[in-house]
Amino acid sequence: MTNYGRDRAWPFAEGGGGTIAFFTILLATAVFLWFQFTNWATGLFLLLTAFLWLLILYFFRDPNRKVEAKPGLVLGPGDGEVVEIVSETEGRYLQAEAIRMSMFLDITDVHVQRVPLAGKVLLVQHQPGKFLQAFRPEASEVNEYIAMVTESDGYGRLLTKQIAGILARRCVNFLKPGDAVQTGQRFGLIRFSSRVDLFLPPSATMLVKVGDRVTGGITPIAQLAQNHE
To answer: Can you state the angle between helices 40-59 and 17-36, rounded to 10 degrees?
Structure first.
């Protein structure tokens, strides 16, 4: 069992440090006001800021995970529930038939995304768009998203989309074209609840079904057959 996720001493998501710092300063201010002006108003403010601080820490949590990488085994690109698995033509990035697996992240899920299969990054592109409810089928095309295409030696190309939603107004991807990536490696973050779409070759053997819960870097999503061309 190999830890391609790279253990981190900082247990919170990369990209969440600024938000955590802001709410920590706010909490410290509330504590100071409580000791300076002990009354119901400062007490209420302290309770509220403490609750928000704990909520932010919970939301931005990023647990270390042991990733079991195997040839052609696609692992979960994030945490969430599988809401759709369909065969369709992906005409923009892959320009080929593909199986699309869509998963919805609710507010309680870990919101860090991980590389589903080792390979090389070919493209990372931000596409402005709408902010419809992320579980709606049309959200994959019309909502704001970041598309990432990776190519795995012998297994072809995969497309991973981080899709914004009605609450999630910002997606972050830390990779760039040319980067070599490992299965389970952290690559991005969606702020608050939203959606991740994974496009696989049509020959992929799916290992999940609609309604299944997925854990990023852990849950087997599909097995790919090696391309011998």
So the answer is: 160
Residues ≥6 apart with Cβ < 8 Å to 89: 96, 97, 98
Give the contacts of 174 (CB within 8 A, at least 6 positions apart): 14, 15, 186, 187, 188
Residue whose C-alpha is closest to residue 103's, from 120, 127, 83: 83
β-strand partners of 150: 121, 158
Mean pLDDT of 106-111: 87
Q: How confident is the model at residue 59 (pLDDT cuts 50, 70, 90)?
A: confident
Task: Classify residue 92 as exposed, middle or buried by CB count within 10 Å of its CB (0-12, 13-18, 19+).
Answer: exposed
Both structure tokens of 67: 């990733």
| The model's pTM | 0.87
Q: Which of 87, 140, 194, 203 is catalytic?
A: 194
Is 140 an annotated catalytic residue?
no
Instruction: Assess whether pLDDT exceeds 50 at residue 116.
Output: yes
